[in-house]
Design goal:
217 residues, elongated, transmembrane, OSTM1 protein
């Protein structure tokens, strides 16, 4: 709201400078009276900051307020932080500082919904965005997700169960057995029958020699 009013006020001053009315000198004095032109400089700074933070990506089309998906995300974000805080208090201070089993167990559902919603918003933003920063959500949402992920993984040492465990194991096993199948099939296809050499019998050779000698005698 403050930013919209700032744009409207600056726009009215800029339009007054271009008009040949009584307010022309007053508007020109506001914009260019000082050497630094502080009004113009501040206006450019606010515009660049607004665009760099991708604020428009989390607002409605008319920029009158947060979009429904952004409000849903921020609501889940607040619920996740509340869950973290509540379970830390329930767990007590007597346990080891690295033991956060209650947080991981009781806040898993809320964190999973938050993480899934964030991934969904990212995919939707990449598909529908056309601006230079369309691949990013607004800075509020990205910072909120980064904070939650750091708390979940680094501080509490929690992890989400991988839903693709079975397909990953199946594909890995198939790849590991590929060399065995290749070498086995290569061995079976390349195997040739050995030639068996039949040597003449010694007795038969001697008999032939005797017949030849009798014939010529």
């Amino acid at each position: 709201g403050h930013y919209r009013r700032l744009l409207a006020q600056y726009g009215s001053i800029a339009r007054a400078v271009g008009n040949s009315s009584e307010s022309h000198n007053c508007a020109k004095s506001i914009l260019t009276s000082d050497r630094l032109q502080i009004v113009v400089t501040l206006s450019e700074f606010f515009n660049e900051t607004w665009e760099a933070a991708n604020c428009a990506n989390c607002l409605k089309n008319n920029s009158e307020g947060l979009s429904n998906s952004t409000e849903e995300f921020l609501d889940l974000f607040n619920k996740s932080l509340t869950c973290f805080e509540h379970n830390l208090q329930v767990q007590g201070i007597d346990l080891s500082p690295n033991n956060y089993t209650e947080v991981c167990k009781n806040c898993n559902e809320t964190y999973t919904k938050l993480n899934d919603l964030y991934n969904h918003l990212q995919r939707m933003n990449r598909q529908g965005g056309e601006s230079e920063h369309s691949a990013h959500l607004c800075i509020d949402v990205e910072d909120a997700m980064n904070i939650t992920r750091k708390l979940w993984s680094r501080t509490f040492n929690c992890s989400l169960p991988c839903s693709d465990t079975v397909p990953v194991i199946a594909v890995s096993s198939f790849i590991l057995f590929l060399p065995i199948v290749f070498y086995l099939s290569s061995f079976l296809h390349s195997k040739q029958k050995k030639r068996i050499l039949i040597l003449p019998k010694r007795i038969q050779s001697n008999a032939n020699l005797v017949n030849i000698q009798e014939k010529y005698s």
